[in-house]
């Protein structure tokens, strides 16, 4: 079924189809006929969605800036949670992790051998030498944003610093691989290549994800893989890239008591950086970081 050229576009922009997503659809249909995996319409954001997601991301960025200013040795991870919660609600937003599938706090704080989904606690005090990921996600007017950064507390070993730096480079190389009408697999390939060239490994069990109207949407963004494979990246897609890189092997374990905290199975250090991106006609825009 094809939409009449003069009907309103399916994206909800209110524009005529011929002035909006007609060319886009023709391009995707032709790629699909050639056997490529293409995004479905429900993950293509219109301008109104993008505006809403950007406003949510402004708050998310503000939360991470606040954490950056305040994080220090001697502080408990529960204090980070409190900072996140108070800033978020005082800006009219909601911390997305809070009660998400039973997650009990407003932010994930993952230290040293914790890969992701660390639960803030009064009992975990930041100490010199810790490498800490703070993963912040925000809902504003129904729009979701998501980003995470690493922080190094006090005197950090050269080994840990190197892991944090290379993981940041992995994210940057992943972002550089994002091209409109390119492939999702290009992202994972770039990340995996860089991580493994330093003797590190890429966590398999978690990936980036579409985001915006929900916390986790399609596609699953692999941080490993092959160029020229996977879904076509089309303008209007919003997703995260958030590589978790282990100094040792990539296998993980989930804490049996809390069912959330993911550790490296071999006890090695793990780092993660996450940005949220918009694919545009021209390239890629970083929305949350
Ligand atoms: N912020 C995480 C992500 O990057 C998701 C955390 S789920 C939670 O996708 F419930 F633990 F918050
Ligand atoms: Co995410």
What is the second-level CATH architecture? Alpha-Beta Complex
Bound molecules: 2-amino-4-trifluoromethylsulfanyl-butyric acid, cobalt (II) ion
Could you give the order of the helices and strands?
Answer: HHHEEEEEHHEEEEEEEEEE
Main sheet makeup: 4 strands, antiparallel
Terminal Cα span? 40 Å
Task: Determine the CATH topology.
Answer: Creatine Amidinohydrolase
Shape: globular
Unreliable residue stretches: none
Compute the gyration radius: what is it? 20 Å
Number of domains: 1
Strand content: 15-25%
The CATH class label is Alpha Beta
CATH superfamily: Creatinase/methionine aminopeptidase superfamily
Average pLDDT score: 98
Count of beta strands: 15
Structural notes for this entry:
By secondary structure, the protein is α+β, with helices and mostly antiparallel strands. It is 29% helix and 22% strand. It contains five helices and 15 strands. α2 packs across α3 (77-90) and α4 packs antiparallel against α5 (184-197). The chain binds 2-amino-4-trifluoromethylsulfanyl-butyric acid and cobalt (II) ion. The site of 2-amino-4-trifluoromethylsulfanyl-butyric acid (MF3) has 13 residues, from β4. Residues 51-281 form the Peptidase M24 domain. One of its GO terms (molecular function) is initiator methionyl aminopeptidase activity.
């Amino acid at each position: 079924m094809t939409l009449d050229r003069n009907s309103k576009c399916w994206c909800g922009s209110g524009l005529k189809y011929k002035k909006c997503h007609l060319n886009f659809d023709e391009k995707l249909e032709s790629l699909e006929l050639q056997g490529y995996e293409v995004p479905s319409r429900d993950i293509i954001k219109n301008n109104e969605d993008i505006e809403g997601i950007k406003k949510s991301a402004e708050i998310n960025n503000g939360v991470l800036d606040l954490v950056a200013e305040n994080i220090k040795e001697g502080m408990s991870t529960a204090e980070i949670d409190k900072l996140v919660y108070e800033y978020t609600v005082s800006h009219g937003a909601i911390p997305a992790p809070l009660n998400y599938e039973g997650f009990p706090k407003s932010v994930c704080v993952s230290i040293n051998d914790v890969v992701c989904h660390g639960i803030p606690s009064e009992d975990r005090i930041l100490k010199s030498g810790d490498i800490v990921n703070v993963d912040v996600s925000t809902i504003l007017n129904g729009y979701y944003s998501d980003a995470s950064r690493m922080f190094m507390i006090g005197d950090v070993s050269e080994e840990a610093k190197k892991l944090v730096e290379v993981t940041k480079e992995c994210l940057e190389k992943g972002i550089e691989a994002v091209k409109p009408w390119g492939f999702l697999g290009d992202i994972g390939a770039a990340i995996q290549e860089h991580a493994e060239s330093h003797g590190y490994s890429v966590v398999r069990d978690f990936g980036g994800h579409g985001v915006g109207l929900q916390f986790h949407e399609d596609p699953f963004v692999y941080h490993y893989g092959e160029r020229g494979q996977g879904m076509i990246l089309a303008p209007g897609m919003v997703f995260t890239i958030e590589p978790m890189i282990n100094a040792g092997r990539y296998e993980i374990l989930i804490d049996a008591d809390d069912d959330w905290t993911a550790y490296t199975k071999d006890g090695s250090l793990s780092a993660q950086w996450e940005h949220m991106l918009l694919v545009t006609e021209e390239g890629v825009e970083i929305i949350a970081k």
